[in-house]
Write a structure and sequence with these properties.
Oligomer: single chain
Number of helices: 4
Distance between the termini: 34 Å
Mean pLDDT: 78
Number of domains: 1
Low-confidence stretches: 69-75
């Protein structure tokens, strides 16, 4: 498909929807990234903190690609999105 909606539908069809365990794991990764960002803001440095930030970015991307409109009704996804916006 060449229209925007067709491209969107093709793209979302490539990634499976999340189950509850996936949501929890991605939420935890995003929260670790939020905590790492706060630690770095206080002057802490280290490879583990940078890894947590990268992991959080990947988790957020996976969330975005794996969820659709129904995700706004999920408390876990809502919490995760709140966590993400706290440190971005």
């Amino acid at each position: 498909m060449s229209d925007a909606i067709g491209l969107y539908l093709n793209e979302i069809g490539k990634v499976a929807l999340l189950n509850a365990e996936d949501e929890r794991n991605l939420s935890k990764a995003i929260e670790k990234g939020r905590d790492a960002a706060a630690a770095m803001k206080k002057g802490e440095r280290g490879a583990a903190l940078r890894a947590d930030l990268r992991g959080a970015a990947k988790a957020k991307d996976h969330f975005i690609r794996s969820t659709s409109d129904w995700s706004s009704q999920s408390p876990v996804v809502t919490h995760c999105h709140r966590a993400w916006t706290c440190w971005t």
